[in-house]
Amino acid sequence: GKGLPLWTPKGTILLLHGVMMSKETMLHWALRLAQAGYRTVLVDLRGHGHSTGRWITYGAVEAADLSRVLDDLERRGQLAGRLGVLGNSYGAAMALQLAARDARVKTEVALQPFSAGDAAVGEFGRAVAPRLARFLSGPPLDRALRRAENLAGFSWQQTDVTKIVDRIKVPILFFHGAKDTWISPKHSEILRARSNGQSRLVILEDDSHPTL
To answer: Euclidean distance between the first and final Cα of the chain, in Å?
Structure first.
């Protein structure tokens, strides 16, 4: 209202949701961080929620999408202060790919990310749909992965976060549940080992993928 001082955010935090989810699943983070004085930005990733896109590409295209989101925020004067990114699962891998390409990202929290998209597809699928396990490994999975590349116009090599994480020069805080069978802790362990010296990994002994 008139006469009230303008709010100056401590910084801006981009929040990225998991696969088959939407921005609303990150609302609890957004509210808590906003209460702490940060501007929070929630987006629906490509092919999720209200965003367009028939196919998802596990970061091959999404990282560029997110850079355009930052361009728009900057144009409108809404990219306040330093920028952090917090991503969960699929969104954590997107966050890492964004940080590798966009110097505006100054810090990052990655909750249970995958280290490579094709590895995550089989592992996640076998965990959540064990009856289909025979189709989610070996030649059937290989054929499905190749078909996905052709349909969506990307390469699984573009989703290999291990090949770009060493280019991230800002602090990264990884979290992973020790009981995670959907995306095992080894993914975060690999990424932490290949990242720069500013990264840290916290393994939560009692957490699975959903509970974390």
So the answer is: 39
